[in-house]
User: Fold this.
Amino acid sequence: MTHRQSGLSGDNGWRPIGLIVAGVACLGFVASGAVRTANAAPLAYVTNSASASVSVINTVTKTVLSNISVGLTPEQIAITPNGARAYVTNSGSNTVSVIDTGGNAVVGSPISVGSNPVGIAITPNGARAYVTNSGSNTVSVIDTAGNAVVGSPIPVGSSPAGIAVIPNGARVYVANFGSTTVSVIDTGGNAVVGSPIPVGSNPVGIAITPNGARAYVTNSGSNTVSVIDTAGNAVVGSPIPVGSSPAGIAVIPNGARVYVSNFVDNTVSVIDTATNTVITTIPVGSRPDFLAVSPDGASVYVPNQGSNTVSVIATATNSVTGSPIAVGTAPTGIAFNHVGAPIIPTLSDGALLLLFVAMAATLAVRIAGRSIVDQ
Assistant:
């Protein structure tokens, strides 16, 4: 900005004072939090297993914003509760990549874990990431503060796949594909507690209700979903029949519905948790995999591994909305940044009032300045 001497012809001395008034008003906007962001939109992060990349989707425009290179055969992804970091299991590299969601770029070196990492889940406090190593029959624990593995790998069942943490962070549930069981890890000591829980054949995915009372497990070899009571760590009721080779599973935030991707049927089954029965089946793309529910519960995003797309289901109508979103090759997993990204800055009513006051004050000073010069 060019500085000037006061009293030059044509200025009448009003502009410096007016700028000061306007500047003070703008500072007031910032100090009072008057400038805000309208309905920040969460971003969806999709692992493309055959592209060695992660696609970032704007959930408002339903378009891909960027593609981030990661390790070989990225399988699943989890994002810290504060939305700052995304952790990606690279099954072909035996590593976990860390993405800074602020710049959508990988940070640091890949974290070495066990053989063929698949599933990943982060504790509610964001301090630990738990990774299933399907080739090692173990779970690795990553300290997210230093992005390093802590402790020894935790032995679980054969070929662990899906993994989930209960809301209070006390236990981790692991679907053991090769053992037809679910292992339970106590996060306090990072050790398996109790006997493995028998479920259906080849369990793959696992999701826990928001109240932590139930764990739902997809049994890909049985075409069913098992329900575990987490209080007693035992299966309750009969297995729920779904489509062929169920894989991914997710619960909506109010706990009323569970969505299950049927890998061979190219469909998604919707389970009513009150009755534990399927209430509808939704056609999607080819080879739907590990799906996820948006933070507001309004949508379910389904990676279609065989179509290289993501389908979006509206939970209000249980129908696909819009056209499939083209992503990388063979998408397998998806997660949402719950914090989201700014859309359009707006002003609150209070901020608008301050703006009008600043404008009026500037005009008044300008008129007063002219009056003084005229005298």
